[in-house]
Amino acid sequence: MTNGSLAAAHPFVTVTAAGQAHLRILATTDIHVGILPYNYHADRPVDTLGLSRTASLIAMMRAEATNVILVDNGDLLQGNPLGDFIVSERGLKRGDVHPLFKAMNTLGYEVSTLGNHEFNYGLDFLEAALAGADFPFVSANVIRGTQLAGNPRNDTTLLRPYRIVERTILDGAGLARSIRIGFIGFVPPQIQSWDRKHLAGKVVARDIVEAARAWVPEMKEAGADVIVALCHSGISASPAFHGMENAARPLAEVPGIDVLVLGHQHRVFPGPDFIGVIGVDATDGTIAGKPAVMAGFNGSHLGVIDLLLAADGSTWRVAGSTSQARPIYRRDGATVVPLVASEPAVVEAAEADHAATIAYIRRPVGHARAALTSYFALVADNAAIQMLADAQIDYIRQMLVGSQWEGSPLLSAAAPFKSGGRGGPDYYTDIPAGPIAIKNVADLYLYPNTIRALAVAGSNVREWLEHSASQFLQIEPGRADQPLIDPGYPSFDFDVIDGVSYKIDLTQPARYNKDGALIHPDASRIVDLAFEGLPIDETATFIIATSDYRAGGGGSFPGTGPDAVVFAGADTIPEILIRAIVQAGEIDPKPDGNWTFAPIDGASALFVSGPKARAHIPNDTIAYVGEGPDGFALFRLSF
């Protein structure tokens, strides 16, 4: 596929042959309540997000084609303070329509599926929210109850596993023809651990490919001409395995699936992120030869798949395709240039809830004597992470009073969420000294995770940190300006554990990969690991304060899992942060310097951060180099 003019990108728009038809599928994904182009954490308009902007692309794409269907791929209800406001402040009474669905209902969606974040607020809230959508949802691998049936077709799915819609389309000669299009939905089975507190004893999740192999043949038997998989899952280069999170590659190999709409990874496909993955054509936008699209996140892109359909008797088959993800903006160096304006109907649908959310996020809760930022949270001990870790420890200490764990050595694991990456050069926490409002707390901790405490052996404290240290690439002594950060390692898995001190030796290879698999068993990056000034006792038991996501196995860290949980709190970590700030009144956040890099003779490394990071360089081992790629700034770390 070429990414030039509309004519080049959509060669099937002018199909004229009888017995052929052009069908355009438009797709959004990972909207995360991003209705308007507004960053609630920064409390300012932005040009990089917003379903209202995506809606203008939808209108453009509809206007130039005759046969068009719009679908969504999930992760709708959580992701910014507007979503939190609806849950924690306003609620959804019978008959209320969630603001996200007020907006989506103006756009004529055909169908959607569930994303993993749909479960963050519980099944009752999910049911109440879905009742306000003017379009149906499908999900084939979320099952009511506690047991999976032997045959997936005998499962009692939470929602209908698939839908087949009959539509009239015009063929190339202008004749009206009937077509039956099937839509089937999937979500990562990891929801069972990620939202265990909401789902345990209520639903279970089946492997994506296993569910597809059962239901797709039934869809064909029911007369579906074309089957579209709404797969809230991404593309992994790893070999296929049962229960994999990003299962697009093996899913594409399931006979009968014609089109894949992807998401979850917040990336763009087709595009350079997936070049070199076996079975994936990152230029033409196919997986196993089948058209696929992944449209970024927060409305940053619109997925567009154009199908050339050929009549085969009374049915249709896909004879050709193009795929692209069209952006709502482009970058000119550090400048963001919007490509479309907002669609007025979407703005009107959201404006009242938007105004209420702004009033909510501006509510003050305390005062900070120093700035809180995440520009260097991946390369140096950080005040924002320190504040989070301290709040978690204080809370768990109080909760363990009177229990068998009272007086146990307490640690706290916390990670940065906003650290650039595919979120772009503005995706960092940047809270100036002064008043702290709810919007700032939401900027520090983005998710409604609840608090957990785990009992972990000292040996697993070390292994936990080894996994975290996999974020870094190996550094060679005596060599300058080597790359530092592994771009495939998510920043939310870079746990800093407070309560112990340690160094990270990057001359060693990573002991674990990003999925938690042991890849270099003889390597050890964590050195000088100590508790209260003495080498850690690897046989002793430590209590680690962390989130329900990590405790449930998110990130596959050693020592985590339900069996290790000794306390499960109902309070969310943002609520705990707010209480800590309110009780203190004024805070003076400072990192305690409990971790550093081990010295490496003659070596330096390069990494990127936001352009505003120059004002927040934390120590003299870090220096600004110059402008980096895609609007980022380039920095050097000297060991």
What does this structure look like?
With 639 residues, this protein is of the alpha/beta class. It contains 15 helices and 38 strands. Strands 8, 9, 11, 12, 13, 14, 15 and 16 form an eight-stranded mixed beta sheet that branches. Helix 11 (383-399) packs across helix 15. The longest helix is centred in the middle third of the chain and has 18 residues, at 344-361. Residues 1-11 have low confidence and may be disordered.
Low-confidence stretches: 1-11
Helix content: 10-25%
Q: Look at the helices and sheets and give the structural class.
A: alpha/beta
Total number of beta strands: 38
Radius of gyration: 25 Å
Sheet-strand content, in percent, reads 25-35%
Beginning-to-end CA distance, first to last residue: 45 Å
Query: What's the quaternary structure here?
Result: single chain
Largest sheet: 8 strands, mixed
Averaged pLDDT: 93
Shape: globular
Number of helices: 15
Quick overview of this protein structure:
The chain is of the alpha/beta class. Strands 8, 9, 11, 12, 13, 14, 15 and 16 form an eight-stranded mixed sheet that branches. The two termini are 45 Å apart.
